[in-house]
Amino acid sequence: MTALTPITFAATDIEKIAAQEGRVAIFLAPDGPLDAGARRVNKLTKGAVQRLLAGQKFAKSKPGDVATLTFPVGMVAEAVDIVHLPRRTDALAARKAGAGLAKLRGQSDLLLLAANMKYVAEVCFGLAMRDYGFDDHKTDANERKGAVVTMCKKPDEAEAAAAPLMAIAEGAFMTRDLTNAPANVLTTTAFADQLSAMQDLGLKVEVLDEDQLVKLGMRTLLCVGQGSESPSKVVVMEWNGGAKDEAPLALVGKGVVFDTGGISLKPGAGMEDMTMDMGGAGVVAGVMRSLALRAAKANVVGLVGLVENMPSGNAVRPGDVVTSMKGDTVEVINTDAEGRLVLCDVMWYAQERFKPAAMIDLATLTGAIVVGLGHENAGVFSNDDALCNAFLKAAQAEGEGAWRMPMGRGYDTLLKSRIADMKNIGGRAAGSVTAAQFLKRFVKEETPWIHLDIAGVASVKSETTLAPAGATGWGVAALNRLVRERFEKG
Ligand code: BES
Ligand code: ZN
Ligand code: ZN
Question: Residues with beta carbon inside 6 Å of ligand 1?
Answer without folding.
Answer: 259, 277, 334, 336-339, 364-368, 370, 425, 431, 455
